[in-house]
Amino acid sequence: MSELNSKIPDGPLTEKWANYKEHAKLVNPANKRKIEIIVVGTGLAGASAAATLAELGYKVKAYCFQDSPRRAHSIAAQGGINAAKNYKNDGDSVFRLFYDTIKGGDFRAREANVYRLADVSRNIIDQCVAQGVPFAREYGGLLDNRSFGGAQVSRTFYARGQTGQQLLLGAYQALERQIGLGNVTMYSRHEMVELVTIDGKARGIIARDLITGKLERHFGHAVLLCTGGYGNVFYLSTNAMGSNVTASWKAYKKGAYFANPCYTQIHPTCIPVTGDYQSKLTLMSESLRNDGRVWVPKTKEDSEAIRKGTKKAEDIKEDDRDYYLERKYPSFGNLCPRDIASRAAKEVCDEGRGIVPSGFGVFLDFAAAIKRLGVDTVKARYGELFPMYQNITNEDPLKTPMKIYPAVHYTMGGTWVDYELMTTVQGLYCLGEANFSDHGANRLGASALMQGLADGYFVIPSTISNYLSPEIFTKPIPTDHPAFVEAENAVKERSEKLMSIQGKRTVDDFHKQLGKIMWEYCGMARTAEGLTKARDLIRELRKEFWSDVKIPGLLNDFNSEFDKAGRVADFIELGELMVVDALHRNESCGGHFRVEYQDQGEAKRDDANFAYAAAWEFKGVDTDPVLHKEELKFENVELQVRSYK
Amino acid sequence: MKFNLKVWRQKNAKADGRLVDYTIDNINVDMSFLEMVDVLNDELIRKGEDPIAFDHDCREGICGMCSMYIDGRAHGPHHAATTCQLYMRTFKDGDTIYVEPFKAKAFPIIKDLAVDRSAFDRIIAAGGFVSVNTGQAQDANSLPVEKEAAEKAMDAAACIGCGACVAACPNSAAMLFVSAKISQLAMLPQGGPERKNRAIKMVEQMDAEGFGNCTNIGACEAECPKEIKLTNIARMNREYLAATIIDE
Ligand SMILES: Cc1cc2nc3c(=O)[nH]c(=O)nc-3n(C[C@H](O)[C@H](O)[C@H](O)COP(=O)(O)OP(=O)(O)OC[C@H]3O[C@@H](n4cnc5c(N)ncnc54)[C@H](O)[C@@H]3O)c2cc1C
Ligand code: SF4
Ligand code: FES
Q1: In terms of DSSP H, where are the helices of chain B?
Q2: A338 catalytic residue (yes or no)
Q3: Are B124 and A173 an interchain contact pair (Cβ–Cβ within 8 Å)?
Q4: Is residue A7 part of a domain?
């Protein structure tokens, strides 16, 4: 497996997907019933894939670690989903959405995939509306849209501040319908802990029943990983507590390359960190930047007074405020992309102009919007968000500006996949946030929901048959096959080892320490020196973890601490790969900002040397991974310096 | 802040459970209730004891996974909030706090505070959907929906499936949950064709799962973190009645 083959179909960009579908191999309905597909994860990507594949007639088994598929992390998405419907008649088109996404990703994504994404985005909205998703509507009864960062058109569909919830419930209901019909077997409270491969093909998984702790073997003709992002490697992030990298990591160790791990998105509008006890950070949707203005005082003195509590936001006169996004990026202003807004916040705080006691926070102010639109309109527009903020912080954003700071939010990197969403392991696919495709080095707001549903509803059903068509001759492989036995034994051995350590430090202790290392050295600003140091620190941490972690309880029992320990062990290894990737990429692009490569604070890409996706091959925990490059060819857009000025 | 906790401990579904006393000190007012339990668990682990099992994931009030019965109230004393959105500033220093699982026959206890709410999934599987396969949809704007209907549907759709309504109800009825889904889909034209069947199937499944009957107490509405309204139950009853009458 030397050269990466991305399998991009021939033909002009606009026709590739149609051409592909016309020529892909099919599986006839009678044969579909003989084929079993494992879908790990029931977020937008997994639930939509599992439901659709079952509708087509495949036998599907779906897995999630929560108690119900409806609780996947996608449920928390607030702001909205993009689609090139051009219902607003403001000049939107498939090409424009494609272009915005490629540019937003700082020219580090694959053209063909992104175009397909923009193309099917329109079908997603149709499908969701048909399912009964209650999107926001205008008085005429037609669908409403709002704007999101990185775009000059209004193409974001939304359901109050609960878009992810409503989209997921739509997909979940479609999935439950198939469960009721007997086409999907659902395994809730199950965690995939190993991938089983036979003769180089993915053939099943080992899953842990999280109630009994028992290991189970499950066969599938193909396996889909739809397991979400790995932002929790930073400990504090906007992700749900259980979000983890374990499934992709097991796949990585079995030969699925991991691409661009260092591309992480730090979201500009989150509630700032206040204490050590904090278990997660809460996002305040980017949609707030439609009406909120970001600022800090012009002078350090005023900022200090605010930090100390001797002055309030209201005491700072208009002329003494620095609306730094509007100042630096006049054409996009408060709606510039996330990476840029986040770095700008870090910059003003590093200058000593932060406005919360820790020094790391800026204002997001709705006063102007309230004056323009009235309190009621502003309140109605952001539904749950204001009360949520008030509940957490004890401050009313309608009266005093919100305080925000960037936090880890999304991971663009992930398992490498080709145009068909197949990984470098035959028959193993990866969908949604877990894969590396589509968003390049930075994701635009409202496009993760779009990608998850595009992958699940529209892409995988068409591409998987191309692989499965010859598989109709493969009989289900009994799970007493040596490959299953061996995989289960490996899991058992590792689990027993973890339980036998009985050291002094808790799992969270290690996780927090890892998070601090990652945030400090592999967060918003990275340097070769810091990254080199981080690699050593992570290696030390790994040794310590494996000799000093303390896990209570029993293996064959409901044991959340054990579950966490397994995930943290994988995060520690992932952390090292992220650092290796960040260190090798001697350029700044999107969410990856290397201090050495900048032009007066703006990211400086190096297209001559780094216009590729970095796909890493596992060679052993203590051995350096091997880099494979997928050259990115830009035939339909011109590579240019990304400017939002 | 310092608290005395009385926490329900139960090894598994079959074992007997009981309230166990813990005291906890140095709690910050800005901590969430779950972060307070994290601190307690951390202490238990360091002492070599089994930490308290509980469900949670998003910690921002949307996934519906957290489920504690605190001081005799589902999700605790804070109005319209889930357990994860309950902050310690709600309590007074020195308070004694009771922490129990959501108890109902249809929600068997798994361990400590974690319960099995898969009955809700089975109710949805019975009819809580629109039967439209991927790819069958027409253009999203080809069917306008009255704004008010869409808004009301959204109000009902906000349910997070947490089960607090069941835990709060002396009859362990699941009417609020079931009616929220039936109402959402009944108010939208997309849900129209299957209205009758949906109402019948979901109600049948609800009864089969062992949930109780509604006697108009209203505890569900009072404790629902998403402020799902009792009017949904009235609408469900109408839907069900209309469906059964015409059926017979
Ligand atoms: C607070 C917040 C707000 C957001 N808002 C927006 C927005 O407005 N617009 C937008 O486009 N995007 C938004 N995003 C991003 C978007 O929500 C996610 O990228 C997207 O939902 C991910 O979907 P997914 O299906 O790939 O994974 P997830 O929804 O994360 O689902 C992962 C699934 O995998 C399962 N799983 C994981 N590991 C295992 C394992 N080992 N074994 C078994 N099961 C496993 C989980 O149980 C779960 O079912 C937001 C993200 C956050 C955190
Ligand atoms: S109706 Fe309210 S209390 Fe009941 S499950 Fe839904 S959100 Fe929870
Ligand atoms: S943990 Fe998700 S609602 Fe409380």
Answers
A1: 33-46, 118-127, 147-157, 164-168, 175-187, 195-208, 219-223, 231-247
A2: yes
A3: yes
A4: no
